[in-house]
Amino acid sequence: MKKLALAVAATVIGLVVAEGLLRLTGLGTIQPEIQFGEITGARLESGLFIFDKDLFWREPEGAPDQIHLGTHFVRVGDVFPPKERRLRILCLGDSCTRLSRTNQPFSVRLQAVLGPNAEVFNASLPGYTSHQGLAWLNKQLLASKPDVVVVYFGWNDHWRSWGLPDRAYTRSLGVSSSRLLNLVRPRPAIPPIRLLPDEYRENLIEMARLITGQGGKMVLVLAPHNINQENTAHYRKNGNITEGDDPQALHLAYLEIARDAGAQPGVRLYDAAAQFAAIAEPRLILQRDGIHPTDPGHQVLARALADDITWNDLGAPVPPADPVAVGLSVLAQESTFQGEWDTALRLFRRSRSAEPEGVGQRLGLAWLLATCPEASVRDGAEALALLEPVADLAGQSAQFLDVQAAALAETGRFEEAVQALDQALVFLAKQGGGQSEFARSIRERQESYRGGKAFRTTVPSG
């Protein structure tokens, strides 16, 4: 009996010593790459990400640069500038908020649209869930006193983890968690979903409570999607789902949870899922994975958010335009930048159908009809007919006069086109924009019209 007691004591002492050594050396801490996939692991190994006990992974600290705070994106440890009178907007999310091919996700574009009326910061990282978003709010972001927080999570929340789900992983990093058990704990036979539906709901509601509790507002984005057979096979190969999972059903279920959370006081929804579905141009606005917005998709998100924030938070006198019509106009404009004239014409016409009385839709379509270099698209007479019902804008909009002049020139009425631009320049001068880039371009077009030459849109180089 005595020998047994000594053996037990020796075993216990050995385990305690081993546990202590593991804690001193850091061994036995479950690494994020085991949990959340090879991409996260590769970025940890390269130093692009570093381990964080609250957020699991984050970017290393550093001085402000061309990407981070001081320009736009936020890292843990960054110090926000003193708050000014303008609206402070924080975009919180995952790779859908962070990544774009041109490094201009919707937060950057939102800043460009809102201009000096607001300051926009982006706090997001690939692979993040609402669990990490909530942790980051508590750890750093709430202290910046944002007026509006745009929250865009969902995909990673309902994807499968390679190991422990998020809350269990947090517990494994706690003081009371045994490092020895972490070393010997087997992977689950069926990878668990990172956040169960109730956990996702609780996180969104807690974010809303924290944000509104200090006087802010929360805009909850319902994530757009285009799930098909091709990208479902990709999700399965990547370990996001198992053989029996239906990614469409999963995503729709989590969208409903977010929709319910949007009923919290101080929270409003931006239903990007419904908007993108109604636009019905998945090739143009979502990447092949059906998850991440394309650059034009980011522009659609930015315009919709700008309309929402301008109306609800900046007190605009005119309510937002129809989001589907605006989205189609954005895509049409992007198509003109690429010289895809037939696509632009189709999208502008669809935009007009979505909001027949919309002034922006009339101006966009009329400009294309008057200035397109493709003769089969041009129709100056139709452009003038589109402008006639809103002709009262001639006395208050230089943009309208510019479009009207282009349509007049296309129909050979050059003298009237010159007169219209004279009026536009007077209007700009009264507004203090007589030396602006817009005024300069109007003068160039006016010289063309004086010479009997209509204006043609050109595709920007690069």
Core attributes:
462 residues, alpha/beta, Rossmann fold, Serine Threonine Protein Phosphatase 5, Tetratricopeptide repeat, five-stranded parallel beta sheet, two-stranded antiparallel ribbon, 22 helices, 7 strands, 53% helix, 7% strand, elongated
C-alpha geometry: elongated
The total of beta strands comes to: 7
| Second-tier CATH architecture of the domain at 62-159 and 194-317 | 3-Layer(aba) Sandwich
CATH topology group of the domain at 62-159 and 194-317: Rossmann fold
DSSP strand content: 5-15%
Q: Write out the CATH superfamily name of the domain at 62-159 and 194-317.
A: SGNH hydrolase
The arrangement of helices and strands along the chain is HHHEEEHHEHEHHHHEHHEHHHHHHHHHH
Q: Tell me the major beta sheet.
A: 5 strands, parallel
**If you compute it from the alpha carbons, what radius of gyration comes out, rounded to the nearest whole angstrom?**
27 Å
Oligomer: single chain
- Measured between the Cα atoms of the first and last residue, the distance is 84 Å
